[in-house]
Amino acid sequence: MLRGFAVLLVLQLVGEVVVRAAGLSLPGPVVGMAILLVALELRGGADEALEGVSRGLLSNLSLLFVPAGVGIMLHARRLAAEWPALVLALVVSTAATLAVTGWIAERFPRRDGAPEGKR
Fold it and tell me: Phi-psi bin for 23: left (phi > 0), alpha (psi -120 to 50), beta?
């Protein structure tokens, strides 16, 4: 478990270094997870340690919504004042996410060997 967690932390650090060195306006952990994605694709999947840590983190993912909920309560007046812009941003970002996800799903074939029409 420690080895899997170390891999995640090292890749986060690598992402931070890449972002700072290149002057990118992206979060370092996002770049680190992109590097992890490429590494997993090249290796053909995660090993047991990384998979175990990932499952543990995902099973407790709901705890990460607590700070967001506190932030919403803290800034309730501002949210009430700026709700039209927030609603517009949510609608546009949701539509863009659905469009890109649909495009990717159609563009890249499944690996499990299922025929194209059986998705």
Answer: left
Ramachandran quadrant class, 108 (left: phi over 0; alpha: psi -120 to 50; beta: rest): beta
Q: Which of 55, 65, 75, 62 is nearest to 5 (CA)?
A: 55
Full pLDDT tens readout for the chain, 119 residues: 889 999 999 999 999 999 999 999 999 999 999 999 999 999 888 888 899 999 998 999 888 888 888 988 999 999 999 999 999 999 999 999 999 999 998 888 777 665 555 54
Residue with tokens 């099973």: 59
pTM of the model: 0.58
